[in-house]
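Please predict the structure of the following assembly.
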Amino acid sequence: MVDRRHFIKTSAGSLAALGSLALLQRSGLAAATEGALPADTLSGKAKLIKHTDRPPNYETPVSDFDAPFTPNDRFFVRYHHAVIPDIKADEWRLRIGGDAVNTPLEFSLEQLRTDFEQVEIAALCLCSGNRRGLFQPPVPGIQWGSGAMGNARWRGVRLKDVLAKAGIDKSALEVSLAGADSGVLPTTPDFVKSLPLDKALDENTLIAFDMNGEALPHWNGFPARLVVPGWTATYWIKHLTALNVLSKPFDGFWMKTAYRIPKDRFPGGQFGSQETGAAMPITAMVVNSLITNLEDGQTLPSTQAMEIKGVAWDSGNGIAQVEVSTDGGSHWQQAALKQDYGRFSWRQWHWVFEPKHSGTYRIMVRATSRSGEKQALEAIPNPSGYHHNAVQKITLHLAQGE
Amino acid sequence: MRILIGLLAFFAATASAGESPIFLKDRPGKNQVVTQCAMCHSLDYITGHATILDRAGWEKTVGKMINAMGAPINNADKQVIIDYLVQNYGN
């Protein structure tokens, strides 16, 4: 595998810079050049909602969430950096190192597939900034709607099994995670994250190769990505190439400065070694729900009974109940929960609405987790616009049917 | 390094094939914005923040691109870029 970042760094200032230009053209900068695809469609993906071209950031239309698992070609795409190499599976290597590892090791994909127990987990992958566009006042950053998430079956190996092979020293505190994508300039901080050791060693944390029974799509991290069930997708490093077991807190930009939230404002998810006086990294998802078959402001032609349906999720305690209101929150009715695919999967729900008369209805939905965490009416303000989980409110107009 | 940055800037401004063209407002400062910003990212990052950032917001954002993201933008260009963004894409 060509390490483009390394290449760009070492070639800077030399005539070989021309070479890096060609590389860039083949990878990040020319993200969607192939074939006759419209410019706003990524290769291998269905039509998604585009926010930015380069790096590519696309969300899934909410109407595509009407299935237990989000199809791979409809799964959202989120990158921080524009240089995204095409990786050949047989050239890919995962390097295990760091100052708190006993034996630095390197694995091929084949070795990971044959030398370790293969496991599968259903889990929701949710961007920390999903629904940022709903914050008032607005918060800078990509103005995501509700579609920067997707539910999938992830198959791969346990991170803890792979780390055990290399041997973890007693001094280990965090595990840093790096992928093959990088910024255009060598001065841009590489997107490297870290996990506290206990989360890295959690039996649910995987290095995944397959998604919904197929190889990971290029835009979702081929050939291997981290899956950290219950925690937001910022830790789910795509195109994973390096894991370092560290005895000290990792101090890169993407941990110390970015993806941080005010301490004590949200439930769950400790990360002691990365906490400062006022702030901590974003960690566990918050309880949330979404209506997937109705749109705000929609008019329906009659007052016939209808199904209201959607999904609900939390950080992995599981969903205890979903309630629906049709009168702006005065009365709440219990929705039925559909099949349980495991506590890290989202949970589909549905409820039959039998309107008594035509007119305008304020439909609301709220979820409660098994740990008792319940959605509030308003989102919790925070400087980067993360964790938007306000109770959804939509207006539905029902015309007088015949 | 200078050669590399020059080439990258040239490439970003002229050959972002496959990207939907983003036409920024044709006002003074546009050249600096296109050359410097499009080196690393498409210009929809700018249009996507048009109703969100005021002068303080654009100053903070451009500062972040230079100080945190390592954009090699000198002080004179920085001021031109901020003024352009505030006047044309400021809230």
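Chain B has a mean pLDDT of 86. Chain B touches chain A through 34 residues (CB under 8 Å).
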